Amino acid sequence: MPNAYNIAVLKGDGIGPEVTEAAIKVLNAVQDASKNLKLNFLYGEAGYHCIAQHGTNLPEETIALLKQTHACLKGPMTTPEEPGAPVSAAVQIRTMFNLYANIRPCRTFPNVEALKPNIDLIVVRENTEGMYSGAEFELAPGIGVALRIITKEASTRIAEFAFKLAAKRKKHLTYVHKGNILRITDGIFKDAVKEASLKHPSITLDDLHIDAATMQLIKRPESFDVIVTTNLFGDILSDEAAQVTGSLGLAAGANIGETYGMFEPVHGSAPKYKGQNRVNPIATIMAASMMLDYLGEKEAAAKIEKAVMQVLKEGKVRTADLGGSSTTNEMSGAIAAKIKAL
Ligand code: NAD
Q1: What is the model's pLDDT at position 335?
Q2: Residue 61 alpha carbon to ligand 1 centre in Å
Q3: What are the mean pLDDT values of the chain's consecutive 10-residue runs (342 residues total)?
Q4: Residue 182: Cβ within 10 Å count
Q5: What confidence score (pLDDT) does residue 246 get?
Q6: Could you tell me the distance, in angstroms and rounded to a whole number, from the CA of residue 275 to the centre of ligand 1?
Q7: In what helix (H) or strand (E) does residue 125 lie, and over which residues does it extend?
Q8: Are 175 and 209 in contact (CB under 8 A)?
Q9: Chain mean position to CA 287
Q10: What per-residue string of b and e applies to 268-303 under the rule 16 or more CB within 10 Å gives b?
Q11: What is the full DSSP assignment across 247-309?
Q12: In 128-171, where do the E strands start and end?
């Protein structure tokens, strides 16, 4: 009997459908090449385009569908920005399923120009609170307030996750905060990391303010291993790290909780490129690889990664962000073909 998984697929907005279909093509290639993997894709609607019809970007039917699945592959979605509009669908899913750890690996890829060689770092971002708590209001006309909620419980949980991840890698953890200004909220975060460090004496722990971290990420990106930080700082640092290693089009992310995982590209819906078949699908393809790894399908996950690396190394198929003129379909086709040939 093959290992069978129900996978929720939310294609999203803008370039979302193109990059998600590209990842499904690659997942189908892995499935075809494997005797014991069965992926049952369940398609759901979510994102900006749903609002007109459903009044929400995350319809009830989609929530019910997510609950029937082992994991979700999510395309990027356009976030409504009007006051009173629904909260980002990604943020709703992260909160609803308590996907507290956002894992965003960044490393140099073969044949892709990066700021420095040999970058291999992972940003671990707290995913459920901080500036994304959604508690924002106008105190008086022209005076807005956003609540940055930081708890000891969530900080300890993400610190533990980061220490365990660092233990499997280069055993070096950097925690990033703004404790000199945000003394109470980041004080709680800092104390939680320091307390967790007592249980992980083999991990070297470094402390950086967010402003210094953004600078050091450009100056010496190769010196980082695992970075742990709060929600907004992690979002910004991971986009920066993605560009330092070459392109946002290559960066994948996992949102992991105790019982569920959602996998997506780091980038957004890039509406100006919608339907042009020109963006890089690798971020979403690598997200699919992270999903298989999360499901315990290590061999299948490694196969996708190997195929991506080989296609990039050969350098014949390159999308515009990598300086080439290949299409989204050509890139996913080349990766799928490589999987079959491995
Ligand atoms: P974006 O990531 O969509 O695009 C920024 C730029 O990055 C693009 O113009 C493009 O030059 C480049 N880029 C992005 N993806 C690429 C790819 N696959 N290949 C090549 N180049 C790529 O950021 P934005 O323009 O700030 O946001 C657009 C929308 O997406 C907004 O509504 C935003 O809120 C939303 N967003 C959603 C998510 C999510 O669903 N998790 C994440 C980030 C942004």
Answers
A1: 98
A2: 26
A3: 94 98 98 94 97 94 98 96 86 94 95 93 96 89 96 98 98 98 97 98 98 98 98 95 91 96 96 98 98 97 98 97 96 98 92
A4: 17
A5: 87
A6: 14
A7: strand 120-126
A8: no
A9: 7
A10: bbbeebeeebbbbbbbbbbbbbbbbbbbebeebbeb
A11: -GGG-EEEEE-SS-EEEEESS---GGGTTSS-S--HHHHHHHHHHHHHTT-HHHHHHHHHHHH
A12: 136-140, 143-146
The confidence score (pLDDT) of residue 81 equals: 87
Residue identified by tokens 């402003």 is: 211
What pLDDT is recorded for position 133? 82
Active site residues: 132, 178, 211, 235, 239
**Which residues form ligand 1's pocket by a CB distance below 6 Å?**
19, 76-79, 90, 248-249, 264, 267-270, 272, 279-280, 283, 321
Distance 269 CA to ligand 1 centre (A): 5
Token pair of 288 as six digits? 């699919």
